[in-house]
Design brief:
123 residues, mainly beta, three-stranded antiparallel β-sheet, 2 helices, globular
């Protein structure tokens, strides 16, 4: 069994405006269909943070403290696209996929637009 345990340390916050994530691995590759999706945290950045701040694990934990009831977990499904503002922290949900290379979790991520942090617009 291939287990992927994702910790809060891996929370990305992208520098652009829109995230587009598409899951490509077949549904029958996942052992537990209630796992493997994406958690999107319901508290956006304010725009006053610097890029180095939002990339800090400590800053992310403190910023997201108390947001558990605002979070959304999108279940895994092959060919499902998840589109959301890049100002929201997000992370892969924990997942268990069957063994073998053909069962590895594969996703396609596309990022669009220009982001804005306190250090200026990132192009």
């Amino acid at each position: 069994m291939c287990l992927a345990n994702i910790l809060i340390a891996s929370l990305p916050l992208n520098q652009l405006q829109v995230n587009f994530n598409l899951w490509l691995t077949p549904d029958d590759a996942i052992i537990d269909p209630t796992t493997g999706g994406m958690v999107i945290f319901g508290k956006p950045t304010t725009g006053s943070e610097t890029f180095s701040e939002v990339q800090s694990e400590a800053f992310g934990k403190e910023f997201l403290r108390g947001t558990e009831k605002m979070n959304v977990t999108v279940p895994y499904k092959q060919n499902r696209a998840v589109i959301f503002p890049s100002t929201l922290w997000h992370m892969s949900d924990s997942a268990a996929f069957k063994p073998g290379h053909e069962n590895r979790r594969i996703n396609l991520t596309l990022l669009f637009g220009k982001g804005n942090f306190a250090g200026g617009v990132i192009s």
